[in-house]
From TrEMBL:
It catalyses: guanosine(37) in tRNA + S-adenosyl-L-methionine = N(1)-methylguanosine(37) in tRNA + S-adenosyl-L-homocysteine + H(+). It is found in: Mitochondrion matrix; Nucleus; Cytoplasm. The keyword Nucleus applies. S-adenosyl-L-methionine binds at H243, D281, L282, D309, G310, N361. InterPro entries: MeTrfase_TRM5/TYW2, SAM-dependent_MTases_sf, TRM5-TYW2-like_MTfase, TRM5/TYW2-like_N, tRNA_Gua_MeTrfase_euk. It is an enzyme of class 2 (transferase). Its EC number is 2.1.1.228. The lineage of its organism: Eukaryota, Fungi, Dikarya, Ascomycota, Pezizomycotina. Belongs to the TRM5 / TYW2 family. Belongs to the class I-like SAM-binding methyltransferase superfamily. TRM5/TYW2 family. Signal peptide: none annotated. HAMAP family: TRM5. This is tRNA (guanine(37)-N1)-methyltransferase. SUPFAM superfamilies: S-adenosyl-L-methionine-dependent methyltransferases. It comes from the Eukaryota.
């Protein structure tokens, strides 16, 4: 009964949002506090005895319902919904009729001590009280309650929906409610095709359901700020954990080749921890936003942006790095005692001549880029490298099916990697086998039968040194 009392009014089939329709009066009882200095004492005792109302998103202390008493600052404490019988408001009457409410020794004692009286209280609930789920549940028909559309990706001020066909008739209403219930959202869009269908840059077509058609957003991730046009570049807020996971593998002074860098969710945080990153993306708009992120987050000494074809970039970047000299001098801060003193060089970090990691984050097709690693370190490149240089770890993202243990998926992914590079690869942990070991990491579900993985392996010598 208590749940029903606080449920939003039912308006099945509503198509145009009428906020005034979501008003409700809930009849309760309240403990009128005679002296405000006793508010804390009374509330604590009623909460301890569970006589005070405990309701989500609502405090128990309210102004007295009597306008004249409310003007003087008098308060009352709402009581649990079971206490609803008719009880007189005066202390004397309340004492004589204490048996008319469900027995509560705490409530009786507070009345006896003349600290409170029990009074009727009409609680007014309005649209702003209920959550998105409360409101939309009261609008959808009974047979549409199975999978209520509630999930969305938020990118800056933009909420990105992917509505199923059966809910499109409610799309404008859903969007309005989302904006109302999420203060950081001012624009709601709905995706109308799959990512990558429109072009190779992983962008998508969309329709604006509510708010201005403004997709220029600013977001923060891993203490880095990114500013971009969401309609022109790829971004997925749900990959934050994966970005962090991979960046933690990079050590200060490493050099990383980020082949499909996008706007820099791997590259920029890595640069902040002192990792050199050669970051590339084919999309000119992503490249522009990447340049902005590098400057905005002050990692220009560590991160170099490129706008090239990824397959070629794997090879050209490897060759160029082998002949590039770059170093960072870490200096002491200026002295407050002696402002004229020059900062001292504390240590120097030299950029390595070969990459420690390659990142290929284009799960729909990244595996097809692997043939670019065949013969990556030809004699013309190796002559510029130390004889004992370590071959890089390749992190390639891909899609596959899903199962409880991912064993079958791991085997399939390794088989495809093997086919692409012409070398047998097997599921294993990094370092477990000298050549051919692949760690297959479960990143996230992307559809009911589709999962995103990251396959990481050290580039086999036979592939790295193979000559055409």
């Amino acid at each position: 009964m208590a749940d029903d009392m606080f449920r939003a009014p039912i308006h099945r089939g509503m198509r145009t949002l009428d906020r005034n329709a979501f008003r409700k009066t809930v009849p309760l009882k309240a403990a009128r506090i005679f002296d405000n200095k006793n508010i804390f004492k009374v509330r604590s005792e009623l909460e301890r005895s569970k006589d005070a109302l405990q309701q989500d998103r609502m405090g128990s202390v309210h102004p007295d319902p009597d306008p004249e008493l409310a003007k003087t600052g008098k308060k009352c404490i709402l009581l649990r919904t079971e206490i609803r019988s008719s009880i007189a408001t005066s202390t004397t009457q309340a004492n004589s009729q204490s048996e008319s409410w469900p027995h509560s020794s705490t409530l009786d004692e507070l009345v006896t001590q003349q600290l409170i009286s029990v009074i009727p209280f009409e609680l007014q609930l309005e649209y702003k009280y209920w959550t998105y789920h409360d409101i939309i549940s009261s609008i959808l028909s009974e047979d549409e309650q199975g999978e209520i559309p509630s999930g969305f990706s938020q990118v800056g001020h933009v909420a990105h929906l992917n509505l199923r066909d059966e809910y499109l008739k409610y799309k404008s209403l859903i969007a309005e409610i989302l904006i109302d219930k999420n203060p950081g959202v001012s624009t709601v869009i709905n995706k109308i095709d799959d990512v990558g269908e429109e072009n190779e840059y992983r962008t998508f077509r969309y329709e604006v359901l509510a708010g201005p058609d403004d997709l220029n957003v600013t977001i923060s991730e891993e203490n880095c700020t990114f500013k971009f046009d969401y309609s022109k570049v790829y971004w997925n807020s749900r990959l934050n954990t994966e970005h962090r996971r991979l960046v933690t593998m990079f050590n200060e002074g490493d050099v990383v080749c980020d082949v499909m860098a996008g706007i820099g969710p791997f590259a920029v945080p890595a640069g902040k921890k002192g990792v050199f990153v050669w970051a590339n993306d084919l999309n000119p708009d992503s490249f522009t936003s990447l340049q902005d992120a590098v400057t905005r987050n002050k990692v220009t000494d560590y991160v170099r942006p490129f706008n090239e074809d990824g397959r070629k970039f794997i090879r050209t970047a490897t060759a160029e790095l082998a002949t590039t000299d770059h170093k960072i001098e870490l200096r002491s801060k200026s002295s407050k005692k002696d402002p004229t003193a020059k900062p001292q060089v504390l240590r120097t970090i030299h950029q390595p001549k070969s990459f420690q990691h390659f990142v290929l984050n284009l799960p729909a097709s990244a595996i097809t880029f692997l043939p670019s690693f065949i013969g990556l370190y030809l004699p013309s490149v190796r002559e510029h490298l130390p004889a004992d240089f370590e071959l890089p770890i390749v992190h390639v993202y891909c899609f596959s099916t899903k199962s409880d243990d991912n064993v079958g998926e791991g085997i399939k992914i390794c088989e495809e990697i093997s086919r692409q590079i012409g070398f047998e690869m097997r599921p294993a942990r990094i370092g477990e086998e000298k050549d051919g070991g692949v760690e297959v990491w479960d990143v996230r579900d992307v559809a009911p039968k589709k999962r995103m993985f990251c396959a990481s392996f050290r580039l086999p010598r036979e592939i790295a040194f193979r000559e055409a």
